[in-house]
């Protein structure tokens, strides 16, 4: 098979040096990236469902002006980021890996709920909305099987 002297992936005007396999290395990288993207796109066919605990909270979270008025501009920005994080995920385990989201399970009177970090001390409180809630065999929430969440509130539960 003859190797082309130039192709779209090579810098304009340059030729491939004889005896080098840059073409095949690039082709391998391209195929790997293409397959990875196709797999990611296939996995993304299932989105994390997001529901709100109240219509008032839904309206608030979808109106930047209300968020700024009620929580300040930095928290409004972070609430938007956390909602975008949830929309980008296909399950709750993915949200756990997002930087600065600090998604963690709560205990005590908030057992069964999870918190996402906003500007300290505020948290976006969510809970799994699957019915039934996925549990591991040894107990505890199965994060990878949670495909629906309910937004409960934005709160500072540290001061209580």
Give the topology.
Elements: H1 22-43, E1 49-52, H2 55-61, H3 64-71, H4 73-88, H5 92-97, E2 104-105, E3 114-117, E4 123-128, E5 148-155
Parallel strand pairs: 1-5
Antiparallel strand pairs: 2-3, 3-4, 4-5
Task: Explain the overall architecture.
With 160 residues, the protein is α+β, with helices and mostly antiparallel strands. It is built from five helices and five strands, in the order H-E-H-H-H-H-E-E-E-E. A five-stranded mixed β-sheet has the order 1-5-4-3-2. Helix 3 packs across helix 4. The longest helix is centred in the first third of the chain and has 22 residues, at 22-43. Residues 1-7 and 20-24 have low confidence and may be disordered.
CATH fold field value of the largest domain:
YaeB-like fold
Q: How many strand segments?
A: 5
- Distance between the ends: 72 Å
The CATH class of the largest domain is identified as Alpha Beta
Give the helix tally. Answer: 5
* Strand ordering within the main sheet: 1-5-4-3-2
Mean of pLDDT: 79
Largest sheet, strands/sense/barrel: 5 strands, mixed
Which homologous superfamily in CATH is the superfamily of the largest domain? RelE-like
Oligomer: single chain
Number of domains: 2
Output the helix-strand order.
HEHHHHEEEE
Helix and strand content put the structural class at: alpha+beta
């Amino acid at each position: 098979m003859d190797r082309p002297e130039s192709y779209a992936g090579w810098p304009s005007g340059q030729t491939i040096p004889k005896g080098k396999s840059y073409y095949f290395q690039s082709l391998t990288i391209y195929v790997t990236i293409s397959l990875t993207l196709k797999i990611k796109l296939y996995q993304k066919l299932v989105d994390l469902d997001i529901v709100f605990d109240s219509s008032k909270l839904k309206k608030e979270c979808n109106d930047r002006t209300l968020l700024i008025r009620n929580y300040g501009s930095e928290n409004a920005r972070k609430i938007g980021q956390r909602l975008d994080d949830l929309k980008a995920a296909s399950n709750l385990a993915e949200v756990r890996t997002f930087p600065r989201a600090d998604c963690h399970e709560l205990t005590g009177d908030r057992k069964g709920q999870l918190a996402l970090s906003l500007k300290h001390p505020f948290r976006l409180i969510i809970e799994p909305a699957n019915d039934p809630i996925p549990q591991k065999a040894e107990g505890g929430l199965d994060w990878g099987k949670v495909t629906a969440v309910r937004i409960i509130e934005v709160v500072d539960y540290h001061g209580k």
